From TrEMBL:
Source organism: Lactuca sativa (Garden lettuce)
UniProt keyword terms in alphabetical order: Cytoplasm, mRNA processing, mRNA splicing, Spliceosome
UniProt cross-references to PANTHER family, sorted A to Z: CYSTEINE-RICH PDZ-BINDING PROTEIN
GO CC entries: cytoplasm; spliceosomal complex
GO BP: any one term: cytoplasmic microtubule organization
GO MF annotation: an example: microtubule binding
InterPro entries to which the protein is assigned, alphabetical: PDZ-binding_CRIPT
Protein name as catalogued: Cysteine-rich PDZ-binding protein
Record-stated family: Belongs to the CRIPT family.
Pfam families named in the record: Cript
Length: 96
């Protein structure tokens, strides 16, 4: 869960670019090289697991943020900035 301010910062879904001039999947204008293997090329390499880790449980976070989804929901804070979003005082939550 993220706050309204951090919704703009969320990364985009991994989908191919639309076919248009200047897209990364075109061969003109410095785009993709012919017969280039995108998995082996160093530029634009995507990693499903980010380099940031959750402050509480040290699990890798897939978005740029401070908390993983589980810890953010259990504490009621924004996963990216740590701002209090939800009051979880009356919630019945387990430690699992």
């Amino acid at each position: 869960m993220v706050c309204e301010k951090c919704e703009k910062k969320l990364s985009k879904v991994i989908v191919p670019d639309k076919w248009k001039e200047g897209a990364s999947n075109t061969t003109e204008g410095g785009g993709r090289k012919i017969n280039e293997n995108k998995l082996l090329s160093k530029k634009n390499r995507w990693s499903p697991l980010g380099t940031t880790k959750c402050i509480i449980c040290k699990q890798q976070v897939h978005q740029n943020g401070k908390y993983c989804h589980t810890c953010a929901y259990s504490k009621g804070v924004c996963a990216m900035c740590g701002k209090q979003v939800l009051d979880t005082k009356n919630y019945k939550q387990s430690n699992v």
